[in-house]
Amino acid sequence: MAEEVWRVWAGRTLAATAVVGAAVALVGLTTGAWATCTVHGLSTARGNHDADPARRLDVDLFPDGRVTARGEASMLQTYGDGAHATARSALEHAIPGMLDGFAIACVVAIGLFAVVGTVKRLPAHLWTVACAVAVGALAAVAVLRFEILAALAAFAPEVASKFQVHGTPLAGWTTAALVVHLVAAAAHPLLREPADA
Length: 197
Fold this sequence. Notes:
The protein has 197 residues and is an alpha+beta fold. The protein contains 6 helices and 5 strands; from the N terminus they run αββββααααβα.
């Protein structure tokens, strides 16, 4: 009896851990940029604006394809002019929205499933299905991370002579959260199995 109670509480703890993992992943997919291109000199018809390291521009790319720019005012103005319209348009359409939508749908599904699992004992085969969906979300996130970095790497040479492309911690946290969810979901049915007679 005591062992069965322990298994129940362990299962609820794992389900709660899976909920947290899904929640963190959802935040990572919907709130921030996953990669940034830092530019120190924008290319124009009159040459490159290099020289001053303080004059920098950061172009952020989000998993849903949104693009934002931040930095020194004159750099923002130069970036926003017609000379870079083609490069900006290509970057804005580089990430397929359906990929981000698929990842979010998977994360919402596994999160809701884990919430139910915290209050109700669910069959092991349902947790197996949840694991498969989590693997799908992980695959989508991995593809998104690659596509985002590749899009910025292709965009940067079109607008600048000096640049650096790097991922943000948010992308790593999203992946880690999905791994935590997957491990918790996979372990859950093993602990919830009744003890052998």
